[in-house]
Design brief:
about 180 residues; alpha/beta; Maf protein; five-stranded mixed beta sheet; nucleotide-binding; ITPase activity; Non_canon_purine_NTPase
Length: about 180
């Protein structure tokens, strides 16, 4: 079996661990490595489209920088709507042949106080740190871990996104129809 080389477009240990857990479940010999790249979007993406664009750019740049078989991009963002602000997160997996898979979820409401800080220009992780009197939220349990009282942490939530984005690669015959 050929070893699959995977470049994850981030140095964030949570994103790397999530991608590694999923990719190694499919490909036990996978080599998964971080590749710090720019997302091409603001540090705090607004809306699903901007967040997907950031994930896609991370995946593409990481894969190209290392000539990996797969590039994985994970990006968290927020959506501000009439009912308040919610989180969003997206994963894009890019194959060297140009195929891609996209998976997203992690939509949950944010407290009004956090939303106000974000609207004033803070990134979600920093806003959660201030609001919940925490440190390093985005490199650990994340907003999702705080807001679910530890029931779901950021890595577990991101593993779902990576799994969704892998669908075209693990069931290709279904996507070829």
């Amino acid at each position: 079996m050929t070893t699959v080389r995977v470049a994850v477009g981030s140095g964030n240990p949570v994103k790397l661990a999530a991608a590694a857990a999923v990719l190694r479940a499919y490909f036990p010999e996978a080599e998964v490595a971080p590749q710090v790249v720019a997302s091409g979007v603001p540090d705090q993406p607004f809306g699903d489209d901007e967040t997907i664009a950031g994930a896609r750019e991370r995946a593409r740049r990481a894969r190209e920088a290392t000539d990996a078989d797969l590039g994985v991009g994970l990006e968290g963002g927020v959506v501000d709507g009439p009912d308040g602000m919610r989180t969003c997160a997206w994963c894009v997996v890019v194959h060297r042949d140009g195929r891609e898979g996209v998976g997203g979820s992690l939509a949950m409401p944010l407290p009004d106080g956090v939303a106000a800080l974000i609207r004033d220009g803070e990134e979600l992780g920093h806003a959660m740190d201030r609001f919940a009197n925490e440190r390093g939220t985005k490199h650990g349990k994340g907003a999702v871990g705080i807001l679910t009282a530890g029931r779901i942490d950021r890595q577990a939530a991101y593993e779902v996104l990576v799994t969704y984005a892998m669908a075209p690669f693990v069931t290709p015959s279904l996507f070829a129809r």
